[in-house]
Design a protein that fits this description.
Elements lengths: L2 H24 L10 E2 L13 E6 L4 E7 L2 E4 L5 E2 L2 H13 L1 E5 L7 H4 L12 E6 L6 E8 L6 E5 L6 E3 L16 E3 L6 E7 L6 E5 L7 E3 L11 H8 L5 E2 L2 E4 L10 E9 L3 E10 L2 E10 L1 H42 L6 H12 L6 H4 L1 H23 L2 E4 L2 H7 L12
Antiparallel strand pairs: 1-6, 2-3, 2-7, 3-4, 4-5, 6-10, 7-8, 8-9, 9-10, 11-15, 12-13, 12-17, 13-14, 16-20, 17-18, 18-19, 19-20
Helix pairs in contact: 5-6, 5-8
Amino acid sequence: MKQKQILGLGVVAVVLMGLAVYLSESRKPAEEAPVAGPLAPGLEAGLNEVNQVVVQAAGGETITLKRGDAGWGVEEKQGYAADVGKLRELLLNLSQAQRMEAKTAVEASYPVLGVQDVDAEGASNVLLRVAGAGPQELAVILGQNNSRGAGTFVRLQGEAQSWLVDRNLAAEKTASDWLQRDLMDIAANRITGVEVQPPEGGPVRIEANSGGEGDFRVANLPDGREPASAFVSDATAGFLAGLSIDDVRRAEGYAPAEDAQTTTASFRTREGVLVAVKAHTQGAETWASFEVSLDEQAAAERIQGEQAREAMAHEQALKAAQEAATADAAKVADAKAEGEGDSAPAEAAATASAAELPEPPKAVSDPEADRAERLKAVQDEVARLQRATEGWLFKIPSFKADNLRRGMDAYLKPKG
């Protein structure tokens, strides 16, 4: 066979081989190619079974959120309550995320999307591990958000393929950001009195103001001095309103620094709830403990007064309704006496008026049961606050701490 013929047959063989490879690759099952779909199949159906979520921040903290008998807690904060709303939102977004577009499967390109392993040099992403929703733990690396629209670049740990999912996924990277920040919310209009012992000077006593400017006044105003502004007292009385925390730690074993400044305060509500605060300030940080109790006698007196007011209001409403019914009945009688045609409409109006007598409130119909319900509501509030505060120290926001630490001079106009 001539050399040209041999060469030609070789070329044909190579072409046929390439064609065979192409046809073989094109006929591979679709499962071998990246396929769009749920990022975490089965997670949404198993959300109620999730019992642990671990957030590992590249170069930073590892946060363990764990569900126990008392609910979700942050392990790195000695099990203090976690922000369940924030956790639920993250898990729901994760369970509903859809893989929209396959991205790189090349390790060298991972940093461009932020989907490299969290222990890789230069990483700033998050590894999220979710356990309990199925037989296997879900581990997903949350990379950068899509700069050209909605979505986040992600990669399941252990898989080469990365994806763009259809929603933004992000997780807080510090343990304190996973805490339940809302501690208590006792509105200022419930406060009847406050006594504060600031770090320096004598105590400041504040009472609800029955009239004049502002809602509160300084009760122990020094002789010859005038208040600077009633609203300074208002801010102090509102310390417990919308009180959130920046951090938390166990009270056991805590000893304030020798140069820490101490502030104590006590708050009394009209329902008899008592809140005692002890705060230590060093530098820009203030850590405080809370002791919550109930003045049972004050609570009983408050309830008795509320019931008396409701009984009086009912009596007045009943009297007014009876007078209206009597007047309507008199009109019917007058109409009959004067023989003014058909008196049926007037009689119907009088009957309806008599039937509209107000129902007595429970404070009148069953005062003992009503009293027990009201007292239980206050007791439940105290118990809830005790559960949230006992055994803990809380880092208080600076603006709240500053309101509490004011000395008497801050409440007064300058001399002269």
